[in-house]
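Researcher: I'd like a structural prediction for the single chain below. Treat it as a standalone chain; there are no partners to consider.
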Amino acid sequence: MTRALLPAVAALGAAVATAAGAAPGGQIGRLPLGSYVCEVPGNATGAAGIRVPEQGFTVINATTYTSQAGRGTYLLTGDLLTMTSGPKRGQKFHVLSLNFLREIGPDGKDGTLRCVRRVINNG
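Model: Treating it as a single chain, here is the predicted structure.
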């Protein structure tokens, strides 16, 4: 190989390595371990949020969650969380932060259900 081709081959190798690490929809990630408490908005005359216990779940490792109904797996790509197996299979969430999720409705827009990771100051 000639010296003129070496920089081009090195650049191509770097581009291929970068593309291999990317996933459709964004970089693959994981949620922090812990319990996510889910609720829908309340109203001005009552509670700010109304808990929906059957929608809550707990992340127990990098790809697994448990809920009242059983255990399953999830996939996080970019800001899209997809429940891939178990009782929540097919449910999708928009990840606003790693501690705040908003369910995505059938129309592809953020719905009213929101899930917040329980920490010391919101337990």
